[in-house]
Amino acid sequence: MDQHTKPAALPPGVELTPLSEMKWETNKSGRQNAYLLGHPSKPGPYIYATKWPPHSKALAHRHPDARYAMVIEGVHYIGYGDKYDETQLHRHTAGTWFTEPANQGHFGLTKEEGTVLYFYGMGPSRLEALE
Fold it and tell me: What is the pTM of this model?
């Protein structure tokens, strides 16, 4: 397609939303979520993106559902266990795929650059604090 060719109209039901145009909601942790499909609190599949600002920390917690995730931007650090332990963090750069098995305790951190993560799961889900 050259610079003068206009793309065809999208078929009904097709959605295209660049990251920069997603509708972000700030939660009480200071992170922002953009819900793309369903919602974690409701039954059925959900997909959302979440922005962690720089120098964010999530203490150990778990979810009742298995979750599948990818780092879209930045660097994310995640560790597994029932208590936050910075020595157990794994460094995930943009493009890294990771899982959070159902009921598996985990914790996270961002450093100076923050991150954007993409999550998929089957609701209903919730966050259960472990510490």
Answer: 0.87
